[in-house]
Amino acid sequence: MLKAAIIGATGYTGEELIRILLKHPNVKISHLVSRSSRGAPISEMFPWLEKKLDLECHSQMDVEEMSQNTDIVFLALPHRVSMEIAPNFLSNGKRVIDLSADYRLKDINEYQKWYGVSHKSTEFVKESVYGLCELNKDAIKKAKLIANPGCYPTGAILACSPFLQAGLVDPDIIIDAKSGTSGAGRSPSGSLLYSEVNNNFKAYKVCNHQHVPEMTQELSKYCGSEVHISFVPHLVPMTRGILSTIYMNLKKNISVFEAVDVLKKFYADQPFIRVRKADMFPEIKDVVQSNFCDIGIKVDGKRLIAIAAIDNLVKGAAGQAVQNFNIMFGLDETAGLM
Q1: What per-residue confidence (pLDDT) applies to 189?
Q2: From 57, 151, 160, 223, the catalytic residue
Q3: Active site residue 151
Q4: CATH number of 2-149+316-328
């Protein structure tokens, strides 16, 4: 059994990691840490864990003790915090999966521009591997530090990259995405109060969301030039899930059947990608509490429209982190996730 530590265990993503790892046949959860913890069993905060996991959740971490008794460290921490924690474990030879944005952007200046702080462990940015499992599997196998992708970028990159790599679409893409409120985390916020979100639907951070440089960085790898992305996220009054509608301009006429075939061939051996038949489209309910990314395609003249659905807490966060873990340790990629 491999031993896993979760730092940031009481957030939405930390809780989701616990839920998944409890079902994992090769994992024992060895340490739980959260600044908000009172040093009590985790089942006191999450009663659904009673008689499933009564491990104490500590408010402080003991790096040396954890390093001696842990095979993998999951950092389910806010942006700007992980970079202060990860080096402690990496320096002790531990493998780390970071679910924040701190190691996703290779351009340190871009990170500082979008996140408003100087990066505190730039030496590890170079060796981090962007953990989008379907696209970077070989690098993930050898990685010591995984930068787990953001929730919005996961669906968008998976839907766009096959067409960019095939040279079928222009590198000018519009992404219109809708997300549930859990994507903002568990920390209190006035804009996320029930009275503000219920019976409401709004766009936010229009073309100014911190996931734009991440999507630009990764998608640009697939067309040989920098991609321009117009990204508009929306907040929907539901708990979880992301539906992304993506508009790409075709360079040549192809049928919807040919477009679907491009996706199916690209992801032929990927267990968590489900491609819909022509002119059939996924819904949030199809993927909730699963690690699947479902993609549907429409061709409208010179425009290719891709619709991708994921659960933001699973494929967009904790599930993808466990998928990365499975690949890193040579396990069945689907272990704990089916």
Answers
A1: 77
A2: 151
A3: yes
A4: 3.40.50.720
